[in-house]
Amino acid sequence: MNPFRFGRHYDPDCFVDREREYSQLLSAVQSGNNVVVVAPRRFGKTWLLQKFVAESGFQCIYLDLLSVISLRDLCAKMISKSFELLKLNDPVKFIREYLKNLSRHVSFSIGADGVNFTLGKDIDEESLLSESYRLLEKLGDPMAPLIVCIDEFQAYRTVSEKLPGSIRGFFQTTPNVIFVFSGSMRHMIEELFFQSKGLMYHCGIKLDLSSFLPKEEVTDYLVRKFEASGKRISSSVAGRFYEITKGHPYYVQIMAYELWNTCLKEATEKDLTEALNQLIFRERHTYDMALDVLGQKYVRKVLIMIASNKDIFSIEALREFEIPNPSIANKTVKKLIELGFVEKLSRGNYEIIDPIFEEYILRRFS
Ligand SMILES: Nc1ncnc2c1ncn2[C@@H]1O[C@H](COP(=O)(O)OP(=O)(O)OP(=O)(O)O)[C@@H](O)[C@H]1O
Ligand SMILES: [Mg+2]
Question: Which residues are in the ATPase domain (predicted)?
């Protein structure tokens, strides 16, 4: 069976490195601090959070804001997760003991994935939220704080504009509940948590997860996994694999998955090229969609310039790509940074964060 895993569910056997970041997360929480995990898409935020939930020994609740459609729904999910955490088997008793003030408004159903709670429309959101917070407060204890992990926090607006202020008010009065937030729109998360005008300024310690995985760990991982599954990869092919993926967590897994499927007994350079083609083919709709969303007139040109290592402000490059002046290049690149596609390395020197998207741009527009 193919031993590589990509998907929402954390697999400890496929987790590479992140030791420093994981121990920073642990020690921040142990000392009672909230944490804000920031990284571009597919850099391993969810896996790090799930590792924490599974292995830290803390009692945790994990919530994914992208799967929440309203404040009412968020409260219902907090209640369902609390019930799960308490490992109770009687929902009626749970409601009686923990949600006394809500008892008239809560109903539950028992499904394949456990007990799900639903909240009636006849109670206002404010009271729902304060009762849900009260429940979390009851679960936390000075000797065993409750850790609430909120993933995809950049999506809070689709739940409620009021959420940041309300969470802030809650944890300022509740020392036994600690929050771990995670989000992928760096610009927005930074503004929210780390700029003085942000609604959650000073509400958590930043944990930056935007570095690629290190070469030695990735190549060791490949060699080990191939061997354990009855195939082989030489250290030179593994090294070339690393150059292509740069150690981007998602591409490490998915490219290794393709490579393992492509090769017979031993992975060769040719298999690697084939796997890369497969990968680009698999991801092409996502990339085209990104280009569509970006839409602006000069975005493609600036992306091609960056992918081909041009100084985007040089007169020659601007002339070659028919960009009228450096301020247009500057505005475009700022937008790309804001949306998390590009990172600044030094003046005039930028990098497309996603290495396979970069390869796609070079192939598509050259
Ligand atoms: N430490 C790691 N070691 C190896 N593979 C990893 C690691 N972290 C993540 N991955 C791989 O990358 C994939 C994407 O990771 P994950 O879903 O955690 O990213 P994310 O930052 O939460 O992305 P998004 O912003 O899109 O939610 C995982 O499915 C897994 O295959
Ligand atoms: Mg995620």
Answer: 15-209
Eight-state DSSP code of residue 199: T
pLDDT of residue 77: 95
Nearest residue by C-alpha to atom 31 in ligand 1: 6
pLDDT, residue 186, reads: 82
Q: Retrieve residue 150's tokens.
A: 């909120």
* Ligand 1 centre distance from Cα of residue 52 (Å): 14
Which domain covers residue 325, as residue numbers? 295-366
Average pLDDT over residues 250-268: 97
136 domain residue, yes or no: yes
Q: Given 169, 187, 208, which residue is the final one in a domain?
A: 208
Q: What is the CATH number of the domain that holds 357?
A: 1.10.10
Find the helix or strand (DSSP H, E) in which 350 lies.
Answer: strand 349-352
Q: What is the pLDDT of residues 335-355, one digit of tens each?
A: 999 888 998 888 778 999 999
| Residue 256 CB–ligand 1 contact under 6 Å | no
Assess if residue 7 is contained within a domain. no
| Best mutation site among 253, 339, 353 for ligand 1 pocket (most ligand atoms within 8 Å of CB) | 253
| Confidence tier at 228 by pLDDT (50, 70, 90) | very high
Residues 42 and 107 grouped into a single domain: yes
Q: Is the pLDDT of residue 233 over 90?
A: yes
- Determine the Cα–Cα distance for residues 70 and 90; give it in Å rounded to an integer: 27
The response to whether residue 252 sits with its C-beta less than 6 Å from ligand 1 reads yes
Distance 135 CA to ligand 1 centre (A): 31
Task: Please tell me the pTM assigned to this model.
Answer: 0.93
The residue nearest atom 25 of ligand 1, judged by CA position, is 41
Contacts of 79 (CB under 8 A, 6+ apart): 99, 106, 117, 119, 132, 135
Would you say residue 325 lies in a domain?
Answer: yes
Helices (H), 87-124: 91-98
**pLDDT score recorded for residue 169:** 93
pLDDT of residue 344: 86
Q: By C-alpha distance, which of 86, 80, 74 is closest to 139?
A: 86
The response to whether residue 45 sits with its C-beta less than 6 Å from ligand 1 reads yes
Please tell me whether residues 123 and 174 are part of one structural domain: yes
The domain boundary, picked from 190, 208, 226, lies at 208
